[in-house]
Amino acid sequence: MAAVATANVDKLKSEVAALSQISDNEKNGFINLVSRYVSGGEAEHVEWSKIQTPTDEVVVPYDGLAPTPDDPAEIKTLLDKLVVLKLNGGLGTTMGCTGPKSVIEVRNGLTFLDLIVIQIETLNNKYGSSVPLLLMNSFNTHDDTQKIVEKYTKSNVQIHTFNQSQYPRLVVEDFSPLPSKGQTGKDGWYPPGHGDVFPSLKNSGKLDLLLSQGKEYVFVANSDNLGAVVDLKILNHLIHKKNEYCMEVTPKTLADVKGGTLISYEGRVQVNEFKSIEKFKIFNTNNLWVNLNAIKRLVEADALKMEIIPNPKEVDGVKVLQLETAAGAAIRFFNHAIGINVPRSRFLPVKATSDLLLVQSDLYTLEDGFVIRNKARTNPANPTIELGPEFKKVGNFLSRFKSIPSILELDSLKVSGDVWFGAGVVLKGKVTITAKSGVKLEIPDNAVLENKDINGPEDL
Prior knowledge:
Elements: H1 2-17, H2 24-38, E1 51-52, E2 59-61, H3 72-79, E3 82-87, E4 105-107, E5 110-111, H4 112-127, E6 133-137, H5 142-149, E7 159-163, E8 167-168, E9 170-171, E10 176-177, E11 189-190, H6 197-203, H7 206-212, E12 217-222, H8 232-241, E13 245-251, E14 261-265, E15 268-272, E16 282-291, H9 292-300, E17 309-315, E18 318-324, E19 338-341, H10 353-360, E20 364-367, E21 370-373, E22 384-387, H11 394-399, E23 406-416, E24 418-421, E25 426-434, E26 440-443, E27 448-450, E28 453-454
Parallel strand pairs: 2-19, 3-6, 3-12, 6-7, 13-19, 22-23, 23-25, 24-26, 25-27, 25-28
Antiparallel strand pairs: 1-14, 4-5, 8-11, 9-10, 9-18, 12-16, 13-16, 14-15, 17-18, 20-21
């Protein structure tokens, strides 16, 4: 394949040059990515014997960080160096929503985006700081987001939006860009993963603007991670220790097969997708803190050559390839890069309606935009929740609960079939509810289900 593909890269260059929908930066970035992929993708062969578990210098325990300064003026100084950037390129399609995922209502009628803005407003009000919010959109979410951010014009948070790159999907058969085959709509293109955040910050002009305002660090996180809030202890540590890059990691549970882990390798820290929980006890939350000057230096030197992730897809029966990169993999290019082993509370992603059930329940409360875990829950782990396909879409999920059940004492919940919940239901211990095919099963108002296996009305 490599020889054929190399010959095809020249043909691809001329085809990409003719695409009018994307900028020269995007064309160059894309060709660069394809060329690297064809020549072997710079996939590193990692020798097991050289892999070391990181020390406390490399993965710093959160409890070992110096406390936040008491003086509000010192805190203001820290915050004035900070920018918050949320990765906002994803659509809510997996949860049955059109438009950006960040506008799904999470709690009390507030969306992810509302909560993020309220959190930063609270900080800016409290300390007189001017922390701006950046949203990295994709071509899928840009137009909708532009309309949505208009409602925050009276906020004390400056909101900047910019787009990540738009790359053409590659037709596997002949290595040509899908748009040049007449597929010029959205299906012809893809956003190349969140590793693209660094060049896109630079290409959009936002990086130079922020540097001119005296900003030094960007806190990057997924917009759907409710635990990813500004942490002054972490910011203080990075500024004092001059760490150019920090990845927040947290202890793995059985649910966390995905998500890279940090290793020490030949004197540098890097990320690998090792799945073993026994050997690798931490994983990447994708909460990243990165020095803006370092981003500028590395992007300008074209030094951020992260591992390429090939993502095969099919569009109208045509097999295509998306080449992507991940922001976490950039860690090995930065100086004095570290991980910080943070509490699990900083990782609260909402990927499905089962996660939405957790954050809408009495397990959490809402204060100043922060989703805070209820101290009345004694078990440090959250309950495991499995909802059937009837609950997959947000609209269906909401209609099936008169009110969200109390789950403070729940260990696990598994629901399958046509199940409907009344108001004021309390779930405790291990609960399984299975409606037989073609049968509607209603859980009555104020029912208390503890360690129950329910297969029909007779079990209630």
